[in-house]
Structures are given as C-alpha cells and as structure tokens.
Amino acid sequence: MTGVPASAAGGPSQAKGAAAASPVSGPAPDAPGVGGDGQDAGRPPRGAKLAAAAVNQASVWNIANLLTMLRLILVPGFVALMLADGGYDPAWRSLAWAAFAIAMITDLFDGHLARTYNLVTDFGKIADPIADKAIMGAALICLSSLGDLPWWVTIVILGRELGITLLRFLVIRYGVIPASRGGKLKTLTQGVAVGMYVLALTGWLATLRFWVMAAAVVLTVVTGLDYVRQAIVLRRQGIAERQAASEETEA
Hints:
Blueprint: H1 12-25, H2 48-59, H3 63-83, H4 90-116, H5 122-145, H6 151-170, H7 181-198, H8 204-250
Helix pairs in contact: 3-4, 3-5, 4-5, 4-7, 5-6, 5-7, 6-8, 7-8
C-alpha cells in the first residue's frame, strides 16, 4: 500500500474509520479492475510482452526441436561418411548407415513428442519437414551419384516429396491434407529401402533391397496420386462452402 500506516494516522480507531470510508474514496489497489500498482486490470502488466516473448523463445529449446536440430546436423555428417574413401568402403558405409538410422528414428519421435506434450512451435513446423526431406534427399543423391541407385528412382521420390509439399501449401486456404496410413507406410518403406542401399550388402540381401525399393517407389507414386485427389476434393469443397456463405450473406 502507498498510504500512511494506521499507527501513524492516530491509532486503530482511526484506521477502522479509514477502512469504512474507503468505498467512498474508490476501490483498493488490489480490488478487481485495478492492478496492484494502480494499473487497469484490463491492460497487461508492465513487461508482459517482454515476458511472453522470453517464454516463446525458451519454448523453442524443447526435446522435440532438439531432435529436429540433431537430424539437420546429421545431414552433412552423413554425406561426409557416405562419400569417404571414394564412397565404397564398407566401414564408412556402416557409419553412414548409423547416422541415417539415427535420423530416421528421431523423425519418428520428435513429432510424437511435440503433439503429446504440447511442444509444437513455429520453428518445429518449418524445420521438421526440411530435416525430413534433407536427410532422405542427401541419401538418394549420394546413392545415385555413386551408381548404386538409378537416377530415375531419386527423381521420382524427391519429385513426389517436393510436389506434395508444394501442393499442401497451395490448398492450405481450403484446409489441411492429413497424413494417411499409406503415406506413413511409404515413409517407413523408403527409410528401410534407402538404409539397405546405404549398407554394402551382397548376395540375397542385395536382391531383397531391390524389391524393397521397388515397393517404396510404388507406394511413393500411389500415395502421391491419392494426395492429389484429396487436394482436388478439398479445393472443390472449399470453393463450394465459400460460394454458399457468399449467397447467404447477399440474401
């Protein structure tokens, strides 16, 4: 309080009188509608915007975003390991596979953690898809440049990923295209197939990885076409809803 203490104002009796007279003089500093420093409660307290900004900045450093950052850091490390000693040394390829596997595992956990524990941030929304495309694109390009994987496979997979990402942005005004089970299966199959190609496999395992990659390419194309269909339906529905809302407004 900013007033004179009751003892200095003439004792308890005068203090009680002052308390009784307080409704006439106005609300107490801590009463509803007035802040503790005399500020209107409808306004944010002094420094609230700075405090909120500090909280938002601190929230970027959560476990989900740290895993995304780790995946981004692993990309140049993976490329260096993949191309070390000409790119055909089994030991270096094994280390490259380990880096790729860690990146794929963190991809499974960061999104789940962000949604489960309310750790979704603007940074994560942007960095997570970039990290996903970066590690997969780096692996495919390295494999094709070394002659282990046909370039058309890399073009089909990367073209589909970039195309669907662009398509999501184009139709976002009408709604969000949800991730389908087929899309999740595609991601898993791609990860397994690319991982098998990163390793220096021979014999029946080399034959097996060919068929796993073939399945990944088929799923890539099929799910891509399904996303295009969903985008067309979503756009038509959005346009129809806007026209209906416009007609109701005019009526």
